[in-house]
Amino acid sequence: MVAVPAGAAVPESARDVPGYWDEACRHLTKRDRVMKKLIPQFGDARLQSNGDAFTTLARSIVGQQVSTKSAQGVWRKLVAAVDGPDVELLQPAAVLELASETLRGVGLSVRKVEYLSDLARHFRDGAVHVGQWQGMDDEAIIDELVAIRGIGRWTAEMFLIFHLLRPNVLPLDDPNLIRGISENYFSGEPVSRAEARELGDGWAPYRSVATWYLWRSLDPMTAAQ
């Protein structure tokens, strides 16, 4: 998957859709020959955000280095242990109330228990300034997130794109972005990081949107979260 795993199911009316999307599509189709052909192939599909910040990041930790099916199974057991099977949003305080043995019992590794607990402490203690993110630039938010154990730059960038709906993120560490550039711009030839960055500069200020369409070109479902 190329996306940060979405949170628990949220009604369609509660989902956020970027207000900049149509303008971004017009911008990209005017300036980029590949985007001009690619964007119309996906009709009215749009990036959408759901869930909340803590739940989204917690799911990203649960899903690390395991299959989607395994991650979903562990997540169901985790939310049941925290607050019953019908809980939609995980709360940091509720996670911290659970013993490490309980967290291990739902299928989390020792390291993931440590990561999840550190994430919960950051949110509980206000070390991440969720209420201020709207006015912070991307790099400042990334700096806050990568200070949490188990969250690296790639996860932080996926969070910016899929949860905060930031329009101008270019996740150069994402292998599917590099693959999408290779297949759509270089006839499948290898692409260097520098080449990808140079190409991405031409998509600004909507690099997230171009990235999303390249993901869709590889697999229409992987970017649909």
The proportion of residues forming helix, as a percent range, comes to: 40-55%
Low-confidence stretches: 1-14
Biggest sheet record: none
CA-to-CA gap between the ends? 10 Å
Mean pLDDT: 88
Give your account of this protein's structure.
The chain is mostly helical and 225 residues long. It has 2 domains: 12-48 and 169-218, Endonuclease Iii, domain 2, CATH 1.10.1670.40; 53-162, Endonuclease III, domain 1 (Orthogonal Bundle), CATH 1.10.340. 54% of the residues lie in helices and 0% in strands. The protein has helices spanning 21-31, 33-38, 53-62, 68-83, 92-97, 100-105, 110-124, 138-146, 153-162, 175-185, 193-201, 207-218. Helix 8 crosses helix 9 (153-162) and helix 10 (175-185) crosses helix 12 (207-218). It starts with 20 loop residues before the first helix and ends in a 7-residue tail after the last helix. Keywords: DNA damage, DNA repair. This is DNA-3-methyladenine glycosylase II.
